[in-house]
């Protein structure tokens, strides 16, 4: 299959950009805010609480104070090891064309199309890819050999670590933002033997995505939006999901936590990204918001609910709830930004 049949230039009203973070923030100006103070931090946290209501509490952990420096190697590896030790949930079907084959910590979503599978993220390492992606798809009646495209939402190992397993098995094309390809090829933000190596870019097969690019495979179109912050090149995929005769617009938020330390430009970029994607959610009536970490969107509990016949699909939250979720993330980011600005 030729590359031109996979990645197309979109016809969308959002600007197509491949710019430094400061320029991206300039395209999506932040709302005017008061001089940072303990009061403004509290106001942003309270605004996040109001937006979260009783159904989006999983996101409120973002409002906890984040450290100004990144975790040490030893601390980070201890935390990763603890997460990897958690037993994986059973794979599950979220929609007629979308399956969960991720773990208890990191997600992997399989979008089925008329021409194979588009996989969103590749988990932590080869063992997870074999057990959860390969094994999970088989449990769900899907053929892992039909994976043709892997979208890596950002260049951290919990999302690309299974790449080598997938390359050896099915040789899919990998899609990652140009910024994060360059980061994984030069200087990783964090490296650990607990994660598999990043994919090695094949100039003939793999894709360096820019903001607004579309992955077109079979009857599916996945639009990739640059939502920097968690990494400089974080991508958020947007696509259609189906439940019987119903059609819904889904978004997989590409990077959530503030684990990069006191970096004000990245906080600004994150805030701007939440505001930008809120505009998109309104325009496209996006009513499904997914995460690449199941703890943020309640994936495991929702899949369990779906195992009961006749229940409404809990993944369909409605556009107002999607907007509230983006508000929670944006307000928590503004609270953290103000905390950093108050530091000497």
The total of helices stands at 11
Number of structural units classed as domains: 1
Q: For the record, give the distance between the C-alpha atoms at the N and C termini, rounded to a whole number.
A: 55 Å
Mind summarizing the main beta sheet?
7 strands, mixed
Give the SSE string.
Answer: EHHHEEEEHEHHEHEEEEEHEHHH
Secondary structure category: alpha/beta
Order of strands in the sheet with most strands? 2-3-4-5-6-7-8
- Strands, total number: 13
Instruction: Characterize the overall form.
Output: globular
User: Cα-atom Rg, whole angstroms?
Assistant: 19 Å
Approximate strand percentage: 15-25%
Estimate the helix proportion, in percent: 25-40%
- Which stretches are low in confidence, meaning pLDDT under 50 for 5 or more residues running? 1-29
CATH class: Alpha Beta
The name of the CATH topology is Metallo-beta-lactamase, Chain A
CATH architecture assignment name? 4-Layer Sandwich
CATH superfamily: Ribonuclease Z/Hydroxyacylglutathione hydrolase-like
Return the average pLDDT rounded to an integer.
92
Quick structural overview:
With 344 residues, this protein is an alpha/beta fold.
Could you please describe the fold and organization of this structure?
This protein is of the alpha/beta class and 344 residues long. The protein contains eleven helices and 13 strands. The chain has a single domain (3-342), classed as Metallo-beta-lactamase, Chain A. Helices cover 37% and strands 19% of the residues. The strands form two sheets. Strands 2-3-4-5-6-7-8 form a seven-stranded mixed β-sheet. A six-stranded mixed β-sheet has the order 1-9-10-11-12-13. Strand 9 (214-217) and strand 10 (220-226) form a beta hairpin. The chain is globular.
